Amino acid sequence: MQSFDVILRNAHVNGAYVCDIGIKHGLISSLGVNLVASENTQIIECEHAIVTPGGIDGHVHLAQDKSPRAREAGYQCADTIETGTRSAVAGGTTTVLLFAEQSRGESVLEKVDAYHQLATYQGSHADYGFHIIITDPTPKVLEQELPVLARQGISSMKLFLTYKHMRISDKDFLRALHKARELGMVALVHAENGDLVDFFTEQLESQGLTDPVYKAIAHPAAAEAEATNRAVTFSSVMDTPLLIVHVSVPESTEVIRKAQSHLKPVFAETCPQYLLLGKSQLAQEHFCGAKFICSPPLRSDPNDVEAIWRGIINGTFTIFSSDHCPYSFTGPHGKQLGLSRADNGNPNGMFTKTPNGLPGVETRVPLLFSEGVLRRRCIDIKRFVELTSENPAKLYGLYPKKGAIQVGSDADLVIWHKSFTPRRLQHDRDLHDGCDYSPYEGIEFLNWPKMTLLRGRVVFRDGQIVNSSKYGEFVPRKGCTLPLSRKMVGSWDVLYAAS
Ligand code: URP
Ligand code: ZN
Ligand code: ZN
């Protein structure tokens, strides 16, 4: 007879059917009714609560302040790997994919090694993997280092088409995609036209228009749409899977949808800030607008937000990530740099000197559950699970170890009780991150995870981190298993591509 370390009784699995979930050695070992407990089995009575797979957040910046440029600018990420992953599990996310950033001239292998060491030293509450940010795709990086990373289970790279210190040329972009194809890696692209953003920014600066509110004007929708179109075209030419990250405007969403309808291997990500926040927040007084500075910026038109919701509903967006990139509002190394380093005499500061990014790793899953499933009722639990867990697992080569409630999968589980009393978010009372504010302060949450389990251990219960032990482990990843309509098998061929 099977024995279990833990049994979740009467779990409403993905809102689809009710059964017991038996767990042994951190894995789901049985799904059935009336599973038999031994005297050592821990029983968790779910009372028909919905149980979903642990969230997978494919876009999390933690401790990403070690680059020479970040040091020079004085930026300090508000979260360590320890505090950021503590916050993740408290919001139902059990796996995070972090960014190891290559500065120009650096080895990507050394960079990833440094992040491994940091994670081991600080400890992690969630399982984790790394994307490599490539800013300098030299022959050595592409030919010698990336194959090593791919073998180590780092199966994704992020490429930037904007930011002076990070962006790559079109030719380097193609070279990187070519290599990604060969190695079975997914390329994530930050799609904004850097020259267009720079030109708009210079125009604003020359007129002294640098208050936080001008951030939205400096990054027009056209910059995102142009770069998205270019990235989609390149992915199509190279016939290699590509993810456009943090999509914020309908123009880009349309480009992506059209490519998908032509069966191009293009995937898309959006984030809570583009569904729930708008550019009016940038106008908050006393420099509080800086709390909402991120790239791409918050958009204003309610139609933009509706177009993003449509993409959530109709499948254009493959994954829903946080782009958690926290800088504290108070203190000298976060958002205040936009005031303290302002050298143009504008008492309202400079958005160009303000670190970009919003915190959100803890609120991502509960926000989509609350707003999408419960308030708008525009998505069902199946689609919610796809966006927050199953699709990130498939895209990033973690499925079915992660992203599924199946026999053999890791017992990463989130329990949502119906008895939750709706409450308005208060950062200091409710959240567990290292930042000092939430952009979602005051939003009413209609539900929140009652419990989070990581590989069978309860790590969060009733608002509290349960165990101070940090069980999170590095998870090596394989290639993308989302359906692709690949024309070409084997290596890319220029004559075939041109035909
Ligand atoms: O503002 C943002 N999103 N900062 C993080 C860096 C990035 O581009 O994802
Ligand atoms: Zn980005
Ligand atoms: Zn990001």
From TrEMBL:
It is an enzyme of class 3 (hydrolase). The modification N6-carboxylysine is found at residue 158. GO terms for cellular component: cytoplasm. It catalyses: 5,6-dihydrouracil + H2O = 3-(carbamoylamino)propanoate + H(+). One of its GO terms (molecular function) is metal ion binding. Its cofactor is Zn(2+). Belongs to the metallo-dependent hydrolases superfamily. Hydantoinase/dihydropyrimidinase family. NCBIfam families: D-hydantoinase. This is dihydropyrimidinase. It comes from Exophiala spinifera.
